[in-house]
Amino acid sequence: MAMYVPLSEGRYRATEHTQGPWDPRTQHLGPVTALIAHELARTAPRPGLDLARLAVDVFGPVPVGELEVRTEVVRDGKRVQCLAASVSSGGREHVRATAWRIREAGTPGTSSPPPPLPPSESEPSWLTTGFGYGRATEWRFTRGSAAETGPATAWGRSRVPLVSDEETTPLERLAMFADSGNGISYALDFDTHLFVNVDLVISLFRAPEGEWICMDAETVVGPSGRGLVRSTLYDSAGEVGSASQTLFVAPREAS
């Protein structure tokens, strides 16, 4: 089963594979962001224009159920193109996004760091049974751990397709994982605090390739209820860009 089942143009049914860690009734932002990338790829495509930036603002939790993704061209040009997307259900908008495409050109590339060494295939992968997105993805840590706070570096790949009967693209895979910087490098205990991101900004200087995405992530929390996550993104060939998340931080209410 995929993360989403298409119902009609721009309409999907989310499956249990999209469930987030805070509430099984709501989705992890990773699949939602990947679905936005999926729909944007179908919006006014033009050869030679590649996505360079995707900024996602979260207005509220996205329920696991039927949803609609609407897209539009905000600015169309020969060298740059701005797109927008909105995710809603039941007449309520949950997420809004903007994206920039930039034309391809033969520019001299600067050197960029190679990817962190991938873990041995003989090492066990980390799979979580606690929520749908965790079960639908596979992680291999090379620094830090899912069981401890602090910075972390991890390789990840999806174990299920994004959309039924469609091949998941490398860009969709990257979008699916870029929101997990908060989850792999958390700075406070899950049992005592909430730390939910209100946005996600992905910036890319080249297109990602392949099945595996690597994140080198670090979370910092300030003294006034806000936090910031910074992640460097890699594929098997090297660095491709970065992701950032602004966090809402609060103690969990006693039950």
Question: What can you see in these coordinates?
Answer:
- It is a single chain.
- With 255 residues, this protein is mainly beta.
- It has helices spanning 29-41, 132-136, 170-178, 181-184, and strands spanning 4-8, 11-14, 49-58, 66-76, 80-89, 92-103, 137-143, 152-158, 193-197, 199-204, 213-221, 226-235, 238-251.
Short description:
The chain has 255 residues and is mainly beta. 12% of the residues lie in helices and 43% in strands.
Largest sheet report: 13 strands, antiparallel
Radius of gyration: 18 Å
Poorly predicted sequence stretches spanning 5 or more consecutive residues: none
Q: What class, by secondary structure content?
A: mainly beta
Beta content = 35-45%
> Count the strands?
13
Kindly report the average pLDDT value.
92
Helix content range: 10-25%
N/C terminus separation: 35 Å
Shape: globular
* SSE succession: EEHEEEEHEEHHEEEEE
Count of helical stretches: 4
